[in-house]
């Protein structure tokens, strides 16, 4: 192995992941508020009950992602206690972290892969909505999402087949699943980002003469969030290919990073909803139309 030791990588993961989870938790709470308040405002105009928000795909996806990322973070601390207290009375934490046969390791990998699948699925859903539910646009990302899901199940199952702690995650039988995960999630993120940006830019060019300026900001939000996921994916790919223990650190924080990128889009656009509503209300109050007769 090259780079840092397995123990240093996992201890660093605990500190960094906890910090990232704190950011994710705050963003999640703001996302829940933004989604519910936005749909409740629309409900007051259109007519359906505000409780419908809890059945909307975006809100359900946010809740599921919050549960998955939170469980993954909690398992990190469970493994920390196992390594330093319960496993061989805490005398060999490096051996514990280096073992791929531990049940908590397998469960944590499952939740990690679930976070990637959920975040990519919601990205595809956003693409579908932005393109006015055009089915042909989402054919490619749906295929890559299905590929990611299959690989996620495959790698989790592969770890359950290990019978010895000496078996490594770098073995070819596991590497084919892991590298496929990286390729599929990269394809989904890059494709969705390009298509969303292209569509928003096209609408922006048509709406500039009418005074619309905020669409360019929306496009930047999607690009920045996707760049965060893409950068972490490439980081993991490089660490794994170099067979560095640093890949344990990247893997442990990757799911949380994906959750942060997802929540950032909701929060920043949600804040835009609020500011736009307040701005429109102010304009309405200052320049409300008056008619001479009904």
TrEMBL record:
Q: What are the UniProt keywords, alphabetically?
A: Membrane, Transmembrane, Transmembrane helix
Membrane-spanning residues: 14-36, 57-86, 106-125, 137-157, 177-198, 218-240, 252-271
What is the protein's name according to its record? Uncharacterized protein
Q: What's the source species for this entry?
A: Serpula lacrymans var. lacrymans (strain S7.3)
Q: Which lineage ranks, top first, belong to the organism behind this chain?
A: Eukaryota, Fungi, Dikarya, Basidiomycota, Agaricomycotina
